[in-house]
Design brief:
The protein has 71 residues and is α+β, with helices and mostly antiparallel strands. The protein contains two helices and two strands. The chain has a two-stranded antiparallel ribbon. A hairpin with a 2-residue loop joins strand 1 and strand 2. The longest helix has 21 residues. It is globular and about 40 Å long.
Length: 71
């Protein structure tokens, strides 16, 4: 149920750093969140500079603010 509430909130957000959420459905005892599929590359071996980390943190902060406003 918490997943459904959070998916509903995320579904209201239109922000370049937040995945679009299309819905949330219960499948047996599990919940499935249907969201946007992003293209890109595997980042598991990626090494980021301190500036890259700062840039990502800034984008994450902006995205979290957008989600908080949607509540």
């Amino acid at each position: 149920v918490q997943a459904a509430r959070e998916a509903a909130i995320a579904g209201k957000v239109s922000h370049p750093n937040v995945l679009r959420v299309f819905g949330c459905h219960q499948a047996g005892t599990s919940w499935v969140v249907v969201m946007e599929l992003l293209g890109g590359e595997d980042l598991s071996g990626c090494k980021l500079s301190l500036q890259d980390i700062r840039d990502v943190a800034e984008k994450m902060t902006d995205a979290i603010r957008a989600l908080a406003r949607a509540r």
